[in-house]
Amino acid sequence: MNTKPQSYKDLVVWQKGIQTAKLIYNLTRNFPREEKFGIISQMRHAAISIPSNIAEGQARHTTKEFIQFISHAEGSAAELETQLILSIELTFAISPEVAEIFALLDELRRMMNGLRRKLATALIF
């Protein structure tokens, strides 16, 4: 039985990235209107970038490029976490409201780190 993902859509890490982006879109709907081109745009872009980079990396079909795109996705996750913290400090969101997103970002980080390590090991052999 072949358990290798045939598509980026088969990757749980990509699926979790999509879930994160949807949560960010829902969260930012309640942000102040004047932030449409500010933090709302930045947060949505960072959230979309996570699964997008995973998809692009897997679609490149080379391990080295996939690792590079996972790193980009990890950077976007860190960027999004920073923006979530700022949104709480600016009182655009409250901690309980973003707790699920923080937990999902933590899970995503662990999954991306594990995937990157697994791919790097494959490069060695």
Sequence-ordered SSE layout with sheet pairings:
Blueprint: H1 12-28, H2 39-59, H3 63-89, H4 95-124
CATH superfamily: 23S rRNA-intervening sequence
Label the CATH architecture: Up-down Bundle
The description of the largest β-sheet is: none
User: What is CATH's topology name?
Assistant: de novo design (two linked rop proteins)
Give the structural class: mainly alpha
- Terminal CA distance reads 22 Å
Kindly state the percentage of residues in helix.
Answer: over 70%
- The whole-angstrom Rg is 16 Å
List low-pLDDT spans. Answer: none
- Beta strand count: 0
Number of domains: 1
Average pLDDT, rounded to a whole number, is 93
Oligomer: single chain
* The CATH top-level class label: Mainly Alpha
**Shape field:** elongated
What is the chain-wise order of helices and strands? HHHH
Number of helices in the DSSP assignment: 4
Strand content: under 5%
Structural account:
- It is elongated and about 50 Å long.
- It has one domain: de novo design (two linked rop proteins).
- It contains 4 helices and no strands.
- Helix 1 runs antiparallel to helix 4.
- With 125 residues, the chain is an all-alpha fold.
- The model has no long low-confidence stretch (mean pLDDT 93).
Could you name the key traits of this structure?
125 residues, de novo design (two linked rop proteins), mainly alpha
